[in-house]
Amino acid sequence: MKKMIIASTSTIHGGNYLEYLLPILESHFKHCTEILFIPYARPGGISHHDYTLTVRSAFAKINKAVKGLHEFENPIKAIQNAQGVFTGGGNTFLLVTQLYQNNVMEVLAKVVESGTPYLGSSAGSNITGLTMQTTNDMPIIYPPSFKTLELISFNLNPHYLDADKHSKHMGETLETRIKEFHAFNNIPVIGLREGSWLEVSGDKIILKGDLTARLFKQNEVATELEPETDLAFLGK
Q1: pLDDT tens, position by position, 28-52
Q2: Helix, strand, or coil here: 199?
Q3: Residues 6 or more apart from 207 whose CB is under 8 A from it?
Q4: What is the DSSP pairing of strand 204-208 with strand 197-201?
Q5: pTM > 0.85: yes or no
Q6: Which residues are catalytic?
Q7: Burial of 83 from C-beta contacts in 10 A (0-12 / 13-18 / 19+)
Q8: What is the C-alpha separation between 90 and 122, in angstroms, rounded?
Q9: Burial of 77 (0-12, 13-18, 19+ CB in 10 A)
């Protein structure tokens, strides 16, 4: 049975890394003593080692050890043997490229489908959908495929922001970009606002947090989904 926390972001305004989620993660990873961290999304400026240290510090607050996937000689076996997995944020194009290059996209999907608890934030949440095509990230590298883990039956747009009606900015909004995606694709998209997350337990996909999420479907007017809504209907 799938057990996932799919978060829009790792850090909310005024808080520390993963701080707002720690009570949830303590329960989510209650049977895990060690979490396997996938640091592949972070481009230049911070090493996989340093990124893992940040994650290790956060999980230490709930008495969980953390080891980075880059520390293993065989990443496939590391994922297969993981008690729990966290994929952090960064650039989704880079993350997907490295998951394919290390031949772990398929094995990661299989272990999560089999019940290994999973946490994703930002880019690590993007990859739980059918494709990565609704990310906000720049294409800094060309992945072998846009296809991702397919653990949920729709796509995500983490860090979703509504248009600021008081702004003089005349450029495209995130809603415009998602509508452009729907000009060529019929996959539903959830705009996940900061501080919100999806809690997946088997077939249930419950919207958590204090804010609504925005649902986009091809050729339909976007709608708001209230917290505690079960999004499993999107797979029907």
Answers
A1: 999 999 999 999 999 877 899 999 9
A2: strand
A3: 196, 198, 213, 225, 226, 227, 228, 229, 231
A4: antiparallel
A5: yes
A6: 122, 137, 159
A7: middle
A8: 7
A9: exposed
